[in-house]
Amino acid sequence: MTKRVVRPDIQFLRMVAVLMVTLFHFWPTLLPGGFAGVDVFFVISGYLISSSLIKSVRSEAGLNLARFWSGRVRRLLPAAIVVSTLAFIALFALVNPAQRISSIQHFIPSFLYFENIQLQFDSVDYFADPNPSIYQHYWSLSVEEQFYLIWPIVLLLTWRAFKSLGKLRAVIVAASAVSFCYGLYLTFANPAAAYFNSFSRAWEFGVGAVLATLVFKKQLRFARVISLAGLALIGASMFLIDQTSHFPGYLALVPALGTVLVIASNANGWLKSVYAFKPFQFLGDISYSLYLWHWPVVVILTYWLAKHPSNLQLVIALGIAVLLSWLTKRFIEDPIRFNHKLATGKSSLTFKWLGASVVAIIAVAALGGSYNTGVIEQRQRDLKKQLSDNAGYCLGAESLQNFGRSCQPVPENLRIPSDYQLVSQIFPEIQDLKCRADTFEKVVRVCDFGDKNSNIEIALVGDSHAAPWFSAIRSVVLKNRWHLVTYYKSACALAPGMRTDTAPGKAASCEWWNHQVMKKLESTKTDIVIVGYGELTLNLVQKPGETRLETQTSSLSQMLGSLEASGKTVIAIRDTPVPGPKLASCLTEHSQNPKKCDMKKSDVLKPVDAMELASRQYPSVILADFTNYFCLSQICPALIGGIYPYRDDDHVLSNYADTVAPVWSKLLVKATEARASTAR
User: Fold this and answer.
1) CA separation (Å) from 165 to 153, 170, 265?
2) Is 90 exceeded by the pLDDT of residue 133?
3) Domain-located, residue 387
């Protein structure tokens, strides 16, 4: 089978698209709208595939669906299998077990091309996933494959019904318009889902397909100007669109129409020479493999380093990705794609090979997942054993405050966990229990623990700054045979008022969640409400002349007042110190001497806290202020009593929070006594 020659301008567009996405993933601030490169790819795919399909359906032989699909399998699957499998191996060689979980879970969805559906199901935010899968970028390939599966059938049936290119074009335009309108709706209703949804993206393929139905007898007038205008639109999308934009929505028209203009103009002369520049054509030629390789390379590097790579490291990583892409193109893509026996033989041969690959991949994923689960469980046992073996010491908060127990001073060399790199992956147990509503989800997830028949029901409510206290609170609840319910949503504190968060859908989701949770709390038998918040994410619309602190205090005060008015006893948690992004890199460098990473108290702890100010307005509200369990008079240590107090730049480590359980016991006893006193 001979290799097809791709037009220089289309190859150039492929190069632009893959560089947009790659540079965005490597340097997000350098190219804030680089993710729109995917939209360029979609239009190109719609044009090229539809051109081939329309030619086939109009021919005497007609469209052979089995041969078309087998061709797609040979074109896309070999490279995808090689890259995903090698990345899987690298994952186990270089990455922490807990950080492997999402990638293992997404290995099969990526290979079977339903990764976009899986990401929607998981409610992943493409721009803010803290623990991304190395296969997350397969979402766009999944959208394409779903298009390749359905589109040939649509074209074939439409052509058989009308036998008219004009009517075929009208059907494509109508379908694309419906898809575009649905995309507009979903972008504002559920932006995280809209980003990955196949039908909300279908119109971009449709735009390319419409272009494929148009036959230009001669080159367009001002072709070079039109082509340059198209490039300008694509360029504008790189810088004028960013993560806060309502995307895809109507903004996706910018890169999509830019791509249409470049393809339609088919410019010649000096511009064609620019497009045909060999380095551009080389990058366009390896664009598919580069798209496959760049994401696992940068994600695995980041996991391995346990911090964001330096610019030099990123440049080296980019070079490695390009080299791997060329090798994949040279020795995997082309030999299989243009294999004469596979191309001219029965399509069943390709599908048999596909079936064997599916079985092998499922087996690899199952074995890898089983092994990884075993490693994680063993590490959890090791961590518990480490805590148990050192229980005689005044661990964590107990080293700063006397809890009335006889314990020994902590040895200088004690580190729990022993490997600091594990700290970032010790998530609050409440998160592992699937009790969290994601940032963009309009859902209230309620989990309950303890004795449901107890006379005392306690609710823990808040965002990720409330979550680390769950384990300590639950231990007290279980000991006293009380009942605990949780209301947890990422980046959303229980505080009324309009949000100013610019990420599409985030503000509306949080406002909705607040309203629903307050209704539930006020209408249930809950006796005690523990409410925590993160100051950094409580972004509220400020009134003229009002400071951020005043706005936050007013909102939290309103929330506390509403809970009290509904008869609840409230424990309000003052926000904890925020160490910032430098702590992790410092501890990585000075793991043997963490004192070098101690922080000035004035740098990491706000002298005045909105929750504290709000609670002062209600004498019966119990303030949970844990400052003295994190900080001394002048500093906040980076290692306290042998335990690292922070999981990352602003979250408390749950293992450290557990050492404050005696304080929670006193707080909850105080709350129940106050409750009983009020009842009398």
Assistant:
1) 16, 9, 21
2) yes
3) no
